[in-house]
Amino acid sequence: MIVLKTPDEIELMRLAGEVVADAHHLIEEMLAPGVTTAELDAAVEALFNERGATPLFKGYPGEVPFPAVSCISVNEEVVHGIPGERTICEGDIVSFDTGCRLNGWCADAAWTYPVGKMDAAKADLLRVGEAALWSSINELPRQATWFEVARIVSQQVSRAGFCLIEDFVGHGIGREMHEDPQVPSVVDGEEAETDFALEPGLVLAIEPMVTAGTPDVVLCDDYWTVETEDFSPCVHFEHSIAMTDDGPVVLTAGVGRPCTTNQG
Ligand code: MG
Question: Minimal CB count within 10 Å: which of 48, 92, 148, 233?
């Protein structure tokens, strides 16, 4: 069941979104060759503690509970990378995903950051992935239902020569991180009954994942980390967004680099 939020509730979610954005800023400052993903995660946990925010990822139920406050997925890792002893290298692309609950309300955002000099292929991938997120947001007020948005964005990504990952979906967000509805990046006619109206009060975490290779993924033996099957690099861009009478509001605004030329 989709639970719509009031303007006051959306404002509380925006405050949680500010903490998530601050976590991203911290990671951007720290990301450099030689840092380990465990060091990045520890800094974010300290920030959440300091701000009185509850991490949403730590302890998330699975085959083993998720052991960290953020998912850090490098290069061919798609999502759910477990922070650890892996050392970041020049030329890596690092997807950082985290969420917190503040005063009972949640926010969740992911961004893929380049480290140092990046090759042209990865630069293209980042550009197309980020554009997929901004296109999704920009289409929200122009379309009646989510599936219409997803079809437009899927076409843009495939025309650019890239693939959306189909195995993972965005989600409603509110008092819980994962609420109805599911927000698939790729839709087909067979699931039309899961489409939903884009109406004021709807709050979604929209999170396209884009790869240069095939969209097939594999689960690693740590039970969490997901990689592309062909080891192609992958990017992940996610904002928490509220539909309001005045259009979509990005509750995790500030996440990512300010060079978001696709916005607007
Ligand atoms: Mg999410």
Answer: 148
- What is the average pLDDT across 238-261? 86
Q: Report CA(118)–ligand 1 centroid distance (Å).
A: 26
207 C-alpha to center of ligand 1: Å?
A: 6
- 197, pLDDT greater than 50: yes
Q: Residue 252 in contact with residue 17, Cβ under 8 Å? A: yes
Which numeric CATH code is attached to 7-250? Answer: 3.90.230.10
CA of 116 to the centre of ligand 1 (A): 26
Q: What would the pLDDT profile of 157-189 be if each residue is shown by its tens digit?
A: 999 999 999 999 999 999 999 999 999 999 987
- The predicted model scores a pTM of 0.95
- Report the DSSP beta bridge partners of residue 145: 197
Cα(97) to centroid of ligand 1, in Å?
8
Q: How far apart are CA 39 and CA 99, in angstroms?
A: 17
Q: What's the gap in Å between 172 CA and the centre of ligand 1? A: 9
